[in-house]
């Protein structure tokens, strides 16, 4: 017999959203977890990485102080203490934002390994847990490539790197995506000599990536924009050979080459659920899998890997599983990489706009023309606006700026609600905020003549 209305596998952002959605509809739900409560974001993703990045950023700002009249300094890092305070934050949030929330909404968490044994039956540690509908929300895990020599090296992932209690003297980061960029700068700002091997910010507008590349050079980070083809042990620790024949050497190696779905031993094949070559669950626009009783949400469904997307897909999956099909509106979806300065983007890149048939027009505003950046004495940054040349509608906003993530919230609204570049140019923008960059960049479509501070 069915025990509850909905069983959710996982306890991360998507799973919690699914449980909340079920309870808001007056339905019963239970979440199943075989690891720590809270999933990727809390335990090994957003929370610990941003906490450590904030700490590393404090040290870096003290060393790279642009105000010589206010002397600052930074000493050695107590990595064990830093890792301990990171764990204290995780433990506190696990109680406040997960355990307490589940109790408040009235859905229990059952611990054990969930596995489908056929298209109708789910077991938890061998015991049946029946429901008319299920949501799979088990997230994703680090992908380890099949690279010659890698198996023989004691390498790190973003997960294990954030558990270190001693800093290595040097580090090679294999992969230049958002995880690789954040981890590279994190350890560089803590005093480690870092090299990055791989495509640098591969999905970022070229004008924006060029600025971040210069920032990495200022930070002393070596960037080798070639594919890693082999790994070997060395007297210094590890050496990575690239497709161009170059070598990057470090005491430790951190592998950040993407993420695959965490669907191991879930019995999805027995349940009639189709997955792709990387294990991601194939879903329709309502998060329904090829088994009409099973839905999937968050990273495991191949959705953009942001916790706020996981939450939205979790709500949609639960609603669909309970008979109210719902879709997620991805218009203007923002993304932020928490480098210093932050890397942000919302909507279409110039290349994507052209591929979709837009006669697009673009402008790039350098941070030297942003009053906030001048006041900060740090003009390393840029913002790019992509618009439809015929209608003036804003298609995309991309930036590398201090506080780019906050700018992306305004950009998302502009794209989602169809604002034009004239709308942005004529919008109130508080002086000496970084979001003012949107209005200034929009003005570049009217004239390339310089303007006064607020003119």
Automatic annotation (TrEMBL):
UniProt GO BP: detoxification of mercury ion
Top EC category: oxidoreductase
Cofactor binding comment, as recorded: Binds 1 FAD per subunit.
InterPro entries linked: FAD/NAD-bd_sf, FAD/NAD-binding_dom, FAD/NAD-linked_Rdtase_dimer_sf, Mercury_reductase_MerA, Pyr_nuc-diS_OxRdtase, Pyr_nucl-diS_OxRdtase_dimer, Pyr_OxRdtase_I_AS
Assembly and interaction partners: Homodimer.
Cofactor(s) required for function per UniProt: FAD
Amino-acid positions noted as binding NAD(+) in the UniProt annotation, renumbered to this chain: 175-182, 258
UniProt keyword Transferase present: no
Family listed: Belongs to the class-I pyridine nucleotide-disulfide oxidoreductase family.
Alphabetic keyword roster: Disulfide bond, FAD, Flavoprotein, Mercuric resistance, Mercury, Metal-binding, NAD, NADP, Nucleotide-binding, Oxidoreductase, Redox-active center
Pyridine nucleotide-disulphide oxidoreductase dimerisation domain segment(s): 334-441
EC number of this enzyme: 1.16.1.1
Molecular function in Gene Ontology: flavin adenine dinucleotide binding; mercury (II) reductase (NADP+) activity; mercury ion binding; NAD(P)H dehydrogenase (quinone) activity; NADP binding; oxidoreductase activity, acting on a sulfur group of donors, NAD(P) as acceptor
Catalytic activity from the UniProt record: Hg + NADP(+) + H(+) = Hg(2+) + NADPH
SUPFAM superfamilies referenced in this protein's UniProt entry, alphabetically: FAD/NAD(P)-binding domain, FAD/NAD-linked reductases, dimerisation (C-terminal) domain
Binding site for FAD: 50, 299
S-S pairs: 41-46
Protein name (Swiss-Prot/TrEMBL): Mercuric reductase
Taxonomy, superkingdom: Bacteria
